[in-house]
Queue: 2 jobs
Job 1
Amino acid sequence: MNRTLLISAIMAASITSAIGQSDPIAARRDTMKAIAKANGDVGKISKGEAPFKLETVQAALKVMAEGSKAMPGLYPETAKAGGETRALPKIWDAKADFNAQWEKFGKDAMEAAAKITDEASFKAAYGAVVKNCDGCHDVYRAPKS
Ligand code: HEC
């Protein structure tokens, strides 16, 4: 990992944990938004709207792997409701499965990062990572009201 990536990963992790203690709902939404932004940058490459750039893909996978580590800690009993959240109560009834899905998402992101070295390997390996998004949302996130 290069130095800039390492520093930004450490900063992201410490900011997440600092905010997470005072406002877990805001922290998990911000983390989710950061993951979605990273995925959006990669989506442009997938759609041919941006040229393939290994750096963009690897940075996105890193945001996903780091974010997924922080996520289970951002759903404490005290943050089921209040604020604007689309997290379904089911999360707290099935915490082990919910946390396992974050672990799988993080693991898939890291495995993809190890496999992706060029555009062909990107096309082959990235899909497995983003399958996790809807897989979790379908069960644990309320539809848009
Ligand atoms: C293991 C479960 C899980 C995975 C995996 C997951 N999400 Fe989410 N996501 C959630 C939950 C739960 C919420 C609702 C959080 C809340 O409102 O408190 C959410 C919220 C969001 C939001 C709304 C953020 C906001 O509040 O504005 C976006 C965008 C999003 N996810 C995108 C993604 C993308 C893109 C991926 C995959 C690259 C992904 N998510 C993977 C569970 C997941």
Job 2
Amino acid sequence: MITALLCLLSSPLLDSDGPSWHGDVEAIVKQHCGDCHSSSGPAPFPLQNYEDVANRSSFIEVVVREGIMPPWLPSASGLPLQSHRGVSKLEMQTISSWIKGGLPRGQASEVSSHGVPEVSSSKADVSIRMPEPWSIPAEGGMNWGRRERDKRTFVLPLGNPEPLRVKQMRFETSAPKAVHAVSFLADDGGYARAVDEREAGPGHYMTGDVNDTPSGALGSVGVGSRTLLLPSGYHWEIPARSDMVMQVHYRPTGRSLPMQESLDLWLSKDDPASRPVRTLLNMIWRVDVPAGEVSELTESWVLPVDIDLIGFTTRGSGVLTRHELSATLPDGQSLDLLDIPDFDPHWRQTWLLQEIRRLPAGTKIVGSWTVENTESNPRNPFIPLDRYITARRTGVLATMLHVAAVDPVEDEALKAWHQGMVRSRPSVQRALQPPTQPVSEVP
Ligand code: HEC
């Protein structure tokens, strides 16, 4: 036994005993880290070659073990999502043993690329770009006197004479290290444009919501995921003569960066049966949490028609720590749709389901949010603590369910029902007035 071990230790095959860089770790890093940790990516340093990784190996081990990296908000307890970014237990063990084994290099070999969803490489049908750059400020400045300013909305005219059926969008940023989540909607009423014209220079300071439509109704792209590709047979519908409204969340980096974003659209042209994707809000429209307190908020409604569920976009600020969305089917069976155990507004994006899920009429959708207005919440932007009171008709805390009705008649019914629900919220002005009498609808 001892002889055998000694023999092995002294053999030149020592490398193959434990994991090596080329044999094992390079592929893991390439798959889970490389897209963002590259010179053109959003992360602050590259993780591309042996030195990049070996020189930071213990830091890397900690952030991966703690689930800080790669950034990905949903846990595995909801419905399976496309492009899930987690590192498996086995991969984690491989990284740990490689570090324990003294960071061996191993033999160089080809590393195969990983399975990102197939996206169209053909030329886009519509390309729009900010006509002039805007400078991301070195420091955000104060946002309504409460926290650092970190978002701005831009209006990009599409000038489309006809409605568009969009099946894929690809966003490009000129400032990948600063630009985080970017949310889209189409405005055919000129509303965002009118707001934009009140401010000098590109863009405006208000959020990207337009009337009853939440920013993100056409999805959001996030850090390291700049493409949104709908499953075949579905499209986003953009009315004729629309503007694309784009709300950009950025992180000030300490130096001013020019930002000139562009968006490419691919259209669904040869599929007359393609169905439009609608966005349903499950939301808390008014939040009021005293300083130092934790509050659990819930919202539920019942689907009026059968729908196909395609994906989710969640929004909230740093006071939101946990969010869960579940469904109770008409037969009483319950289903976890989405679970975000540790929300971080900078890592939001649209999550598309691996497989479309039919939910029948009568299904109850239940959302729950934990708001921690405390000092122990590391992401609370409202320090020093204050009463956190805010309202927004399109949801302060919200998950947008991207769905499609099964036929045009039910699609009309779904739209009318959803509009009625959003419009039943009292106006924000009333909600935020000093409480002369209690607002009965407060969640
Ligand atoms: C989706 C993009 C993305 C992916 C994928 C990603 N990172 Fe990161 N990483 C970032 C960004 C952006 C930062 C900068 C920190 C921030 O903005 O919070 C960062 C920061 C880090 C840091 C510094 C942490 C800190 O607290 O300052 C380490 C270490 C790290 N990443 C390692 C990894 C490793 C290892 C992987 C793969 C297992 C990985 N990252 C995957 C985007 C990514």
